[in-house]
Amino acid sequence: MFRFAFALAFALGIVSTAANASSIRVDGDYAVSGPALHGWGLNVEAWDRTPHFDFHLDAHEHKTVKLFKIWTNEWYVNYDDKHWESLNVHFSFDSLDTSGTVEGYSRGFKNHYGQYGYVGWDNPLEIALEHGGMLLVSLTHEVFNWGKHHLNAGYHYGSYVYANFKYKPGDKVEPVPLPAALPLMAAALGLFGVAAWRRRKTA
Questions:
Q1: Is residue 200 included in any domain, yes or no?
Q2: Which of 93, 157, 167, 197 could form a disulfide with 57 if both were Cys (CB 3.0 to 4.6 A apart)?
Q3: Is pLDDT above 50 for 11?
């Protein structure tokens, strides 16, 4: 009798299955914007090395992408260059039908280590997915155009900003629609009926 009870529990277990996807497709593009590109402080430039991305992530898997290069054409960090200016990266995800922005800041530094530009980010960007999971996007903090006595201006001395994408599945559970579950439940109950009939026959 216990094996038939197990069969019913197994069937009902199939009826309520986790709705999380085992993998997701991450495809889309991004845009870099903000006052740091044309603001009052250290003026920076950004070159989109990977304007479009397209890959798959399994559960808990992460992928690092070389996103864009950042640099300055200035030669010296002056007083106004020490002012923090905002720099944002806006992501648009086509297959996920959603978007989000990683906010960051850049400025120039001048100290006994030398002169250099710096960019940092408010990480991570959390994109909630329909099935209860989450896509996390983090950007790397970078130092660029470092020089001992002055900035080494130009693209060649810039640094790449990397993006790390990670898929974190949720624990949301959704039932299979009832019409699809009925055959499973009927089969399990039928097994119980056969077992009861055999027991009465042998009694």
A1: no
A2: 167
A3: no
